[in-house]
Amino acid sequence: MVEFGRLSWVISAWMGQAMGSAIDVAVDERKRMAHQVDSLDLLLFVCLLILTIVTLWTFKRRRMPYLHESGLAVIYGLIVGLLLSFTGSPRSESSLFIDNAHSAELFKFTEMEGPPNQLLVSVLLPNVSQPKTYTYEFKSQVDSEDANDPIKQKATFNAEIFFYVLLPPIIFHAGYNMRKKHFFDNMGAIMAFALVGTTISTFVIGLVMYGVSRLIQEIPLKFLDVLYFGAIVSATDPVTILAIFQDLHVDPMLNGLVLGESLLNDAVAIVLCSAIEEYAKVSLNGGDLFEVDALLLTLFKFFTTVFGSIGLGAFIGCLTAIVTKFTQLRDYTLLETSLFTLMSYSSYLFAEICGMSGIVAVLFCGIFQAHYTFTNLSDESKLRTRQFFETLNFLAENFIFSYLGVSMFTFSKHYFNLFFILGAFVAIAVARACNIYPLGMLMNLGRQQKIPMQYQHMMWFSGLRGAMAFALAVSNTATPVRQMFFTTTCLIAIITVIFLGGLTTPMLSILQIPTGESSEEREELISDYEQPMASLPSHTNRSYLARRWKGLDQLYLKPLLTHGQPTLMETLPKELTFLGRWFTSDMQLQTQSREALGPRNGDEMMGTSAKDQDDPPLLGVADQD
Amino acid sequence: MVEFGRLSWVISAWMGQAMGSAIDVAVDERKRMAHQVDSLDLLLFVCLLILTIVTLWTFKRRRMPYLHESGLAVIYGLIVGLLLSFTGSPRSESSLFIDNAHSAELFKFTEMEGPPNQLLVSVLLPNVSQPKTYTYEFKSQVDSEDANDPIKQKATFNAEIFFYVLLPPIIFHAGYNMRKKHFFDNMGAIMAFALVGTTISTFVIGLVMYGVSRLIQEIPLKFLDVLYFGAIVSATDPVTILAIFQDLHVDPMLNGLVLGESLLNDAVAIVLCSAIEEYAKVSLNGGDLFEVDALLLTLFKFFTTVFGSIGLGAFIGCLTAIVTKFTQLRDYTLLETSLFTLMSYSSYLFAEICGMSGIVAVLFCGIFQAHYTFTNLSDESKLRTRQFFETLNFLAENFIFSYLGVSMFTFSKHYFNLFFILGAFVAIAVARACNIYPLGMLMNLGRQQKIPMQYQHMMWFSGLRGAMAFALAVSNTATPVRQMFFTTTCLIAIITVIFLGGLTTPMLSILQIPTGESSEEREELISDYEQPMASLPSHTNRSYLARRWKGLDQLYLKPLLTHGQPTLMETLPKELTFLGRWFTSDMQLQTQSREALGPRNGDEMMGTSAKDQDDPPLLGVADQD
Fold this sequence. Notes:
Chain A is mainly α.
């Protein structure tokens, strides 16, 4: 095999001399082969998703609520992964090994520390005078003993694709569709559960696993390592729970609490992960000794990251609102939708570049887009943006769950340790209890609308781990420690998604939690969007934070950022009215003057004024018969 | 610099021993830095697109039709690229070089010929007993003299992203929105222009450039090389022309001809490129001698690829139609849309795996989806799929044109040759003339509805080169020959898109081509979708091919694949009626029986029957007020 490989390499070099462009043909050929294998990989997942959709439809039709899409995708993924692991990967069969050590001449690393990012390889071919230089990009680290086994070198998940392509639409969609009222009303509780609760959970898991790790002889684990593991598996999954709660129309307060917490949770877990690494870098002795300076720095960084990201996301949301309010972009819905999408995506990228959390930024960008920009959009763009993100979200999240299932069997670097896995399941159950119940009790002291005990049980129960935990674990599987973390996280995600997800509906009825609040909820949601003129803050069961926010929102932000009433001319102090005029749109003025004639007609006018305009000229076909 | 680099590498190795997990931190850190640079790159393009959209809106508002979106995106790209080339790339500044040749121990190639796809590198670190093994993936080939210059090693365009992510939605959208009537009516002419015309164009460009290449001393060019170049630049661009024609509502026959040709064109160019490589491989002497066997094999492969891909795309389109007809998936619009998207994408992947042309497959899949599946979809999915692909298409194509502009200045391996560039411009003008006028004349002999001379002039003029030529050129830039092809193709694309694109509107009025057929066209389109009961073939100005197709379509395919009338029970021979019953849906039977009561009411009933059903339960918010 080695001989044949060397032979063909020599032949190709000879052809390169003989015909000038044969090397091009060889490069093209190689690319085409890689392309075919990639296509096969992708097709596998596309077929898995198709299968999931068809099964899902059958289940929905027969009213079998036990399995939801995430669970289905995971199970199908597991089956296909199992089949693949028997048949072997197509990739390994099409490649030959050449021990070509002696023809390598020049060898360069471009990196500061760790394995080099890029490699330059010069190869002196037998009959060519000039050496050929190729660039290579870092892919992964393998165990030395695995290096000769092509089957074990299957493609690892490209975490960059996850973070750039799959994740932003999911998180944005969650923010964009969040029932804002219940989010803002429970903002204090959600923040507490997410910020304090996730930190508690991380430390509890760290402590429990540190105890467990004493039982494991093969791999020495430091406290910082297990703390990192704690941060990874503290990210609870919004996807599955969201889908089930939405189908069943669960009580809005519980929905808001669970959804808000699990979303912010993801973000906090990411920030915690980097904070722990930050701490490991700052404390020079590797984190064995407790260092106050390093801890303070880490804490400072943690809070600036979280609040900086929130601010950035909110800022870009408001900027989009301003742009859509003061331009007539709404005449061209395709441009409007595209701008909306691009601005929202840019919040993710901006945050990542500034070293903040893109997830938090894009989540809050989504919330602000829904709150302000949405009301400025044309009717068509409203529908278009919602449906666009809904479709992207559905595809992305089912892809992730399929992948989760497949990789359980095909990923070559699994490291199973029974003690660690069992310990981890106990740890996450304990840690979630230490998060929910004490914080719930504390918050009930201050809240007028208490969080009932059965709601707290349900919150404890809904601690599924999903896509985010998987992504955090898969992003680095270089060492055995991280491989063990990865394997354990995969198992936790698969088992919680299938079992806890499947048992959510029975659990809701056992705990006697009200469901089916559909029509009321919907109406409220619509009125939330369509009536920017809602009454000023009067509810008394809101938290202090929620009340302050509501005041600011109604008096300054909505008048500034949307076409709603009242205008800034009314809400700003008298001496600033000229400033208010600048930021009041013509549409606001029209509504105001009509209102003066016949009070409380503003809403209908708002509705019709958008329709009076011409048909959007860029929409290809008028198929809204 | 080298010393510092080596130092940090040693330090990291020492830390790896001292604290066990520091190497993880290093890997994470490295990934995070790469992530930030990637984010910056992406953000650049997102901002470019935002800028394009805002400018486009300003232009549309002020009714300035001279610049269209592709031209704008290219121009902004050029400006940003120019600025970037002055400031230098952020990537090169953050990397250090280490000459680490002596610590590399093991070095393996996994490939048959040419540079290896994957590289395994074992590095023995100073204080660690076991060597670390890393895997690297092939990225590109660089000139040996450039190897030491980090600025020249900027990221090359990842052609895989282009082919998997950006291209399929663009082509599918074009097929899905094609005015099918004018496509099918002119099918013969379109096929002739695309298949024969593109081949003529390739050979004419090849011949002209072979003459030009005698003037170039630096690079020896074989005939096959310039033929390959001919294939690359024979792909005319549908994007820009489509946008302009659609805005101006150009005469439908011209629209159908230009659009159909430029779409199939792309596909034919891809197939020609691989056919030429195939020929180079098959003919052992490198293509200098004319070999009948190789040519026949190549021709055979060419035709099987084209017709195989058409068949595959059509098959998957019909399969989707069957699935949507006989399941009640339409009750869940999100599932329906997702399935539709995934099935369509799978046609691309299937074709690529089978070694056929994914572009042709996805184009015809789009045409068949629009023709059959579309009528089966729920009203909401009709809107949703159109808008989803419209948005994806807009984003993807503008991204490509921005990238085209930026890469003109930032791509490091440009190879300018004035003779070649000037020759290429002459060659494409001549070749397009040799394609359009003789074929137009020939076809007018057989056509009843002639193609007027000014239409032929317009077809000659609308030979813009765009995304596909760029993608074909960029997919291999390993050798100076290919680099020269790439540079020339970029210039051709930029100049034709800006100038020919900008002059389309004046040219239409100079040639006195009728525009503004908007309302009539639209109605016809709608009726095309909404009336599956259109009259049987009667038009006499259709080509033979079109008439045969229409008969098959009306009698068998539409009854089988859609809910339209007549049913298969009526159109199949008497003895096969039982078979017809199987493939007739309940909805078809209902319509039929109602029709028996009051003839010609079928359409309204079709319209309402879809609306009688329940609201789609998966749609998040009812915002269609």
